[in-house]
Amino acid sequence: MDYQTELQQSLQYLASNEAIKSLEADAYWPKWDSPWWHMLLLHEMGETKLIPKSAIEAHVATLKRVPLKIFPIHPGEMPPDINPYRDNPCHCQLGNVYQVLAAWGVDVDKELPWIRPWLLRYQMADGGLNCDNEAYLVKDEVPSSMVGTIAPFEAILLYTSRPWTDAERIFIEKGAQFLIGRKLMLGSQTKHNAAERESEKDWLKLCFPRFYLYDVLRGLNALLLWGEKTRQAIPHEAVSDVVTYLHERFPDGVIRTERLSYEDIKTFLPPSSGVGDWAWGEPATLFPLLRKVSAIGEESPFLSKQWADARSRLENLNNEKSTRRNL
After folding, report:
1. Rounded to whole angstroms, how far apart are CA atoms 22 and 111?
2. Burial (Cβ within 10 Å: 0-12, 13-18, ≥19) of residue 121
3. What is the 3 state secondary structure string of 248-292?
4. pLDDT tens-digit profile of 108-140?
5. What is the pLDDT of residues 75-103, one digit of tens each?
6. Could you read off the pLDDT of 251-308 as tens digits, one per residue?
7. CB 73, CB 35: distance < 8 Å
8. pLDDT of res. 322
9. DSSP state for residue 164 in the 8-state scheme
10. Can you tell me the distance from the alpha carbon of 100 to that of 98, in angstroms, rounded to the nearest whole number?
11. Which of 6, 23, 288, 302 falls between 20 and 30 A from 187, CA-CA?
């Protein structure tokens, strides 16, 4: 796949005054072509370091101005002058933000010290998180979400550059057990999050980029990295169905994109005059690099590499398990 022309277009945009103005106005919106989405895509491509410093600095500066640095759950936690969509991040957004900035070289805990505690604070009893505020008010079940969990889990697991604190170890352990319990592919069995049982069908369709979405290869990669970093055994039954499925679906190891992460989405758009309220309901727009690397049916070098790495980690973990048995 030749995407160099489109890659250079994104890099030129991120270095432009237009991108800086967009980031100064909002760190996230509009979908799917604000600077944030270019940066997140570059990160998923393994090209985080190519993001211009000016874009990173502008993104951090805007995140520092986020008016509400908690996830409002209880009555009174959402100030009346706050836009719940534009002014209040969610767990999956912050999990991805943390990964991109840390991979680029930002000391996120120093520059944005509220993000890590946020991720730890909102883990639910079963190890998952949920970007649905009302899920935290449910008393008779734990309606956690795979989508709301995976990015925070990746962030704390992969982008902690010092020994984990006790709170972080608990977060990572509970997050791993959440993935194990779901066998990487099962939706919530709760009433509140019953819709996730429909979503699980889509998780078998691999997509690139994922942005905030989940698929079984993303979950497998995260769990294998947990096993590798913590040297803990992963139960065979937790991964066997997904591994068998991926072997059968892609017998040659080459993965073709099967799903888009940005279908049928509307967005907030800034006022054309630069003054006034942002408008909701406009169709989200795309940019050339996103179109290029996400085309359904095309070979994805990024997903294929992740699957090859996953197979290698599986082999290493199996070899270590066999060695321990023989000692």
Report:
1. 20
2. middle
3. HHCCCCCCECCECCCCCCEEEECCCCCCCCCEEEEECCCCHHHHH
4. 999 999 999 999 999 999 999 999 999 999 999
5. 889 888 888 888 889 999 999 999 999 99
6. 999 999 999 998 778 899 988 766 778 888 888 999 999 999 999 999 999 999 999 9
7. no
8. 54
9. P
10. 6
11. 302
Domain boundaries, the chain: 85-263+297-326
> What is the Cα–Cα distance from 183 to 3, expressed in whole angstroms?
35
Q: In DSSP terms, which residues pair with 256 in a beta bridge?
A: 299
Q: Coil, helix or strand for 104?
A: helix
Residue of 199, 213, 216, 217 whose CA lies nearest to 40: 213
| pTM (2 d.p.) | 0.95
* Confidence (pLDDT) at 326: 42
Task: Spell out the long-range contacts of 100-105 with Cβ–Cβ below 8 A and sequence spacing 24 or more.
Answer: 100/39, 100/40, 100/43, 100/48, 100/51, 101/56, 101/59, 101/60, 102/155, 102/159, 102/161, 103/43, 103/48, 103/49, 103/159, 104/48, 104/49, 104/51, 104/56, 105/49
Residue 323 — very low, low, confident or very high, per pLDDT cuts 50/70/90?
A: very low
Residue type, 263: E
What does the alpha-carbon distance between residue 257 and residue 301 come to, in Å, rounded to a whole number?
Answer: 10
CA 247 to centroid of chain Cα atoms? 24
Q: Which amino acid is at 53?
A: K
Question: Residue 282's beta-bridge partner residues?
Answer: 267
194 to 132, 141, 146, 191, 201: CA distances (angstroms): 13, 12, 12, 5, 13
- The per-residue pLDDT for 320 is 65
Instruction: Specify the DSSP class assigned to residue 65.
Output: T
